[in-house]
Amino acid sequence: MDYKNLDVTISEGIALVKISRPEALNALNTNFFLEMDDVISSVSNNVDVQVMVITGEGKAFVAGADISEMVDKSPGEGEDFSRLGQNTFRGLELMEKPVIAAVNGFALGGGLELAMGCDFRIASTKAKFGQPEVNLGMIPGYAGTQRLSRLVGLGDALYLLMSGEMIDAQDALRIGLVQKLVEPDDLMEEVMKIAKTIASKGPKAVRKVKFVTRDGFLSTFREGCALESKYFGSQFKDEGEEGMRAFLEKRKPNW
Ligand code: CO8
Predict the structure, then answer these.
(1) How far is the CA of 187 from the centre of ligand 1 (A)?
(2) Full-prediction pTM beyond 0.90?
(3) 6-199 is classed in which CATH architecture?
(4) What are 182-208's pLDDT values in tens digits?
């Protein structure tokens, strides 16, 4: 598929997906979601890729859903557009491989919802975050109302969702919306370093950590622990044996 909104490069086990519609601050249109669905499926099936990184071109990560595409929609069309985005971002969570958001600039509305669909977020010290939908008389439609409270807690989520306030990277770090801040010029180097570190670990272990943690997060503690035991056990006589033997034999594991 020839992408209009995305630039995808694969190297050293990492798929780097750059959203590239800088003239509209990478605003998300229908075509973006179709292309991202295609990327999710091809990266999932590519045995050479261990980790996916998503970033934006220019001064924005993503400045939201494309307002010019949404303005004339009917309620039914709006609901369909919401489901389209929700399915794509859920697709990032359901991918077995880890997905990192490298937040280079504005992550607003649908852009923050995209970043929250990733497994974790590393941001530029100059990035800005917000759910400004109420400024437009709208509410989030790509699961922002659901993921934000689960990530940062109800009080900070409702504050951001009700005020529409844009916060800076330091505040985003303080409330746990992002995991690490990096100077703008060093962002991609640092994110690729983190991605390569993850890619060097037991690939099945990393994928099982993602699945068990994410599935457990949506289940009860008891169900999550049962799932953990099952997947913990499944690593014996498999990758786990090689990893533990390598430790005992003071050598690098050969996955
Ligand atoms: N949609 C479409 N175009 C956009 C968007 C957007 N979300 N954001 C920016 N652009 C365009 C601008 O219109 C402008 O285009 P042009 O040059 O043709 O006039 C270009 O990008 C550059 O933007 P600015 O000139 O405004 O750049 P500034 O640096 O002055 O300002 C801001 C940057 C503060 C980020 C500003 O652009 C802004 O406020 N953007 C809108 C942010 C916003 O409200 N986002 C939320 C959108 S709603 C949403 O995401 C809902 C998600 C769920 C949808 C569910 C589906 C139903």
Answers:
(1) 23
(2) yes
(3) Alpha-Beta Complex (3.90)
(4) 999 999 999 999 999 999 999 999 999
